[in-house]
Design a protein that fits this description.
Layout (H helix, E strand, L loop, with lengths): L1 E3 L7 E3 L3 E3 L7 H4 L4 H7 L3 E3 L8 E7 L2 E6 L3 E6 H4 L11 E7 L6 H13 L11 H40 L13 H27 L10 H12 L4 H24 L5 E4 L2 E2 L5 E2 L2 E6 L2 E7 H27 L8 E4 L12 E5 L6 E3 L1
Antiparallel strand pairs: 1-4, 2-3, 5-6, 6-7, 7-8, 9-12, 10-11, 12-13, 14-15, 15-16
Length: 365
């Protein structure tokens, strides 16, 4: 798939030297006095972004000081040579360089529920000047990257557990030695997964602080503290407060699992496949016993599925509440609403601001 460098972008700043209209034909009398490297850097052109398997380019957008190429099945970042070599010393450096940052695009449910939802609701026209939407969207890209990696780790584990189980079932039918199924380096696998889950909570908290930093929250804060702040602002019967209240236990479990696995504490017990007296086999399990935060022994497979689902739900719904509770009060009376399914431009983007315009109002998608 080829993309002209001027598609959907009128001007781009290249380093500290020049501002150019990408794709424009510079006149000969301007070009003739320039160095060869300047002619290359200042000329228009095109770049092949990804592969045909990535699908079509849906959008090019500057997010968090990064130019992103959002495709149907992938997201790339495009970097201009002047940002790498602002003094223009290396003529062999390609004018543009792109790299894959997420191997999912607009067709992905996760990308839609996190990044596209954020792009829909975190726009500067909806918020007071102290809310930095560009910063929020940049953090959302980081959040999506972490979620994508977490999904891969969880899916790989579930596939591996199934493969080992199936192999064991086949062996049972054969006579000979008995071999118990096993997942190699199980604790290390768990450690990696819950480190990523904890990073996701930390990044989400950094987004939250963009709205409530004046209430004492920092990016080192966690959901119990966030819950306390919301209660002090809105009271215990508020919808946002009740939602976050329901997330606190899960977030605490996730954090203490990460802490216990990181530091090899006795608070976390991970067990591989285990044979029982009756000959039955238990699949891998995990258990947490940390002060008041406890998790009874549970199938690791089941917990990982819950973790992935919960984190995506929490991010999506928290985004909607943050936007709805912090929208500016002057001007158009915007309201955060769930978009009726029949009116959604993207099936997985279910929240947007609503305006009382026309019959039934208008959803700002």
């Amino acid at each position: 798939m080829k993309i002209s460098a001027n598609r959907k972008i009128s001007t781009l700043k290249c380093g500290t030297h020049h501002s150019q209209t990408v794709g424009s034909n510079l006149k000969t009398d301007i070009m003739k006095d320039k160095r060869p490297i300047d002619k290359i850097r200042d000329s228009g052109g095109h770049a092949d972004i990804g592969t045909e398997e990535d699908g079509a380019i849906i959008e090019m957008k500057n997010i968090g000081d990064r130019l992103l190429i959002i495709k149907e099945r992938a997201i790339y970042e495009m970097v201009f040579a002047d940002s790498i070599d602002p003094e223009r010393t290396n003529i062999n450096l390609p004018p543009t360089i792109h790299k894959l940052i997420i191997d999912k695009g607009t067709e992905s449910e996760v990308v839609s529920r996190i990044l596209l939802t954020a792009k829909t609701i975190f726009k500067s026209e909806y918020f007071p000047d102290n809310i930095n939407c560009d910063k929020i969207l940049g953090l959302t890209i980081d959040l999506l990257s972490e979620i994508s990696l977490l999904e891969k780790e969880i899916d790989e584990y579930i596939t591996k557990e199934l493969k080992v189980s199936n192999k064991y079932e086949k062996r049972k039918e054969q006579k000979g030695s008995y071999e118990l199924p096993s997942i190699v380096n199980l604790e290390s696998v768990c450690k990696t997964i819950f480190q990523k889950a904890d990073h996701i909570e930390q990044t989400l908290m950094e987004i939250i602080t963009q709205f409530y930093a004046d209430k004492g929250l920092t990016k080192q804060s966690h959901f119990p503290k966030f819950h306390e702040v919301l209660i002090s602002m809105y009271g215990e019967e508020d919808g946002f407060v009740k939602f976050i209240s329901n997330t606190v236990y899960f977030m605490q479990v996730t954090r203490q699992l990460r802490n216990g696995l990181d530091h090899r504490l006795k608070t976390v017990t991970v067990k591989d496949f285990e044979i029982q007296k009756d000959g039955n086999i238990f699949s891998p399990t995990i258990e947490l016993n940390y002060k008041e935060v406890k998790l009874e022994r549970i199938s690791l497979n089941e917990l990982l599925k819950i973790t992935k689902t919960n984190l995506i739900d929490i991010i999506e719904t928290t985004f909607a509440y943050l936007a709805g509770y912090n929208v500016k009060t002057e001007g158009m009376p915007y309201q955060m609403r769930e978009i009726p399914e029949e009116k959604r431009r993207n099936n997985f983007v279910k929240y947007s601001f609503w305006m009382p315009i026309g019959e039934g109002g208008f959803y700002c998608q």
